Amino acid sequence: MIDQTRFWDKAAAKYANDPIRDMAAYTYTLERTRSHFRAEDTVLEIGCGTGSTALLLAQSVGMYHGTDISSEMIKIARAKVSETSLPNLSFEAHPALEGIHAHEGLDAVLAFNLLHLLSDIPAALDAAHQALRPGGLLISKTPCLSDASFKIKLVLKLIPLAQLLGKAPFVQSFSVTAYDQMIETAGFEIVECGNHPASPPSRYVVARKI
Model-level pTM greater than 0.90? Predict the structure, then answer.
């Protein structure tokens, strides 16, 4: 089995330089996420990568914590924040579950392009539920690869070989319907959702803890 930490450490420099594939979809979900924030909120982003999204969203909240499994990603994120005037933004290297367990009473937990890379999504959702205050928000965006086009599904069949060669991380495939059900089963009420982009569907969900 591929070492996830090592994989993302090796990928960090390239990841930091890769352009956003669909800027329109990224900008839309960024603005929708920001619209749910209050100035006093404490927010945790798991799987924050090199901190690009955190730098944009931290300006809208009281405290913003970013965690990622890769210490190399976090090193780049810290270098970015050192060049800003954002004293409310911090980064720590933690796997997703450890990152969540280190916090409590959160107003929002964010997970962008992460959950399909975890081996136990229900555990991550349960941990997020526990870490949130009553009425707190889980905001996520996740590729639902079971609903991808036939052409993309053919490419996905090559992932196991790429993993053996150390060229791909662990990836789960599930449908939009299954993903929404996982969130609701974890004790959340979905208050906003959509696919941005639509193909392959990258499911954007804002869900309130109930």
Answer: yes
